């Protein structure tokens, strides 16, 4: 009888430990994927800046110019953008879809990455005429309904001047 109780306790402990390990692994995988999505957001803004410079446009873009992507109206108060990858690239559509948004008026679906549990937005504000602050925010709900968030930020400059 004692041996049976010990055996059941060991089996329950192993099962609980296994389930807990799987949950932690899933949480770590989500956190890692969120970090990659946040970094992708920063890289998208870098690529738009670099593409504008390489095509002899103003580094933050001119209205209606290179791929229609512009950050030139960003001021010291900042603006919010939703950035996502395009399905195809041509002269009209660069690799990124960029949409300026009002974060207070957004619905969850407008931030949602396609076929994903993650929401992403980019905040950009001017530091000076030749420097901007870029913050990429990714959030998601864990299995236990806890809201998680990853924020990465950088400053970008007009590296030609």
What do you see in this structure?
By secondary structure, this protein is an alpha+beta fold. The chain has one domain (2-157). The chain contains 2 helices and 5 strands, in the order H-E-E-H-E-E-E. The chain has helices at residues 2-54, 108-111; strands at residues 79-85, 96-101, 119-128, 131-141, 147-157. It has a 5-stranded antiparallel sheet. The longest helix is centred in the first third of the chain and has 53 residues, at 2-54. It is elongated and about 80 Å long. It starts with a helix and ends with a strand.
How many structural domains? 1
**Could you name the ranges where pLDDT drops below 50 across 5 or more consecutive residues?**
none
Query: What's the average pLDDT?
Result: 80
Count of helices? 2
The main sheet orders its strands as 2-1-3-4-5
Quick one: how many beta strands?
A: 5
Q: What percent strand? A: 25-35%
Instruction: Give, in order, the helices and strands.
Output: HEEHEEE
> What is the straight-line distance between the termini?
81 Å
Helices and strands in order:
Elements: H1 2-54, E1 79-85, E2 96-101, H2 108-111, E3 119-128, E4 131-141, E5 147-157
Antiparallel strand pairs: 1-2, 1-3, 3-4, 4-5
Key descriptive features of the protein:
161 residues, alpha+beta, 5-stranded antiparallel sheet, 35% helix
